[in-house]
Request: fold
Amino acid sequence: MTGILLAAIASTARAQQPDGITGASIQQADTAVAVSRQTQTRQRFRLGGYGEAVMTRNFFSQSFNRYNAPERYKSDQSHGRFDLPHVTLNMGYDFGHGWTLGTEIEFEHGGNETAVEIEAEESGEYEAETEKGGEVALEQFWLNKELLGGRLNIKAGEIIVPVGYSNAYHEPLNFFTCYRPEGEATILPNTWHQLGVSLWGRLDRWRYELQFLSALNSESFTAEKFAHQGATSPYEYKVANCYAAALRIDNYSIKGLRIGVSGYYGHTFRNSIKTPGESYDDVTGALAIGTADFQLKRWNWIVRGSVVYAHLSDADRISEYNKANSTHHKYQDGNPFHNTNIASNALAYNLEAGYNLMALNSQWNQQQKLYLFGRFDHYNSMASGTYRNQYRYCAPYIATIGFNYHPIPQIVVKGEYAYRYFEKPSNQGLHSDSPLYIQPYNNEPSVSLSIAFQGWLL
Reply:
């Protein structure tokens, strides 16, 4: 028994990255293959996961109406929140002969993905949101077959769609902030997972992945979150009238540097049970997404950045259709989709950098790490389109400073001060009583503390 335990510990250590932090989700199959190849006494079963607990104090109004009448809520009191953003359990099994299994079960915000929310886009009414059928989120369930010594793998099942940095590397040790980067996590599904087939592998200093998936559903697109909810389904199955493809390529040629690009393309309009009328025959809702990201881990620095741009064809026609067929239309009887306008373009970009202060003095504990970091984000879920001026609050800027303390490689304590603000409207020469005067939005500062775990237990 002791020998098996030691073999498990050794295999886990070898599967970790050089700094002791386990790899990201898109590398789970890589890790399973590496364990199979490196361990003499095969450790077939693997158990791990990650989790986050966050405490936040927001120094701004929590009213759903704060963007419609900013002046009225300018002096509102602060409010606090305790949250469990993500708690997951990962299990894997090596069957031998190149066959591996990977699973991930996630509990978001400590619940079962059903909640009562106040919808700002729907006049502040209370609404029971069911984001996905079922009581828990099964984010991964796939079988992988290794071929050609890892240069080619075939993976099928519920898989992560690695479009954008925050989907490919979504675990808490892969970003400095207490919550996942707001921009990508807002305009794209996050964590994006769907049933599909993936061809992936490693060729020297390259990693590639090509996926065939069911397309997103434009009935779930919204003004505030663009395509974020497009991968979910209120039914017990995922409708697949339309198909899509996703691609990701990462390069590791320069020591300590990873550069990645990813993309997605698919038609989104008819990917639902209800069939649109003949007047929509020419509407496809073609969605194209392009992303680029990098991470530099060298000289005691960690620097990361990413950019995402998305274009949706027929956005105005889809907005018209969704509003006519939503739960708020007088002829509807429970349609679970959204009554909101949609943009034709959305974007997000960010940059963060942190330095490990423990490296300044060789007498300090070098197994521990203390990063001081700064970060800047901007995104716009209504970057263009007919209705963009009605949703100026969908384009915030976020400046963040804080720290990440790693007492051991698998645990991090985070603290941050974030300053969320918006572009000021041009009111030059206008009095505040003028009907042309546009009220500026209030700034939204906050302070957060969190603790997180990520790693393999067996």
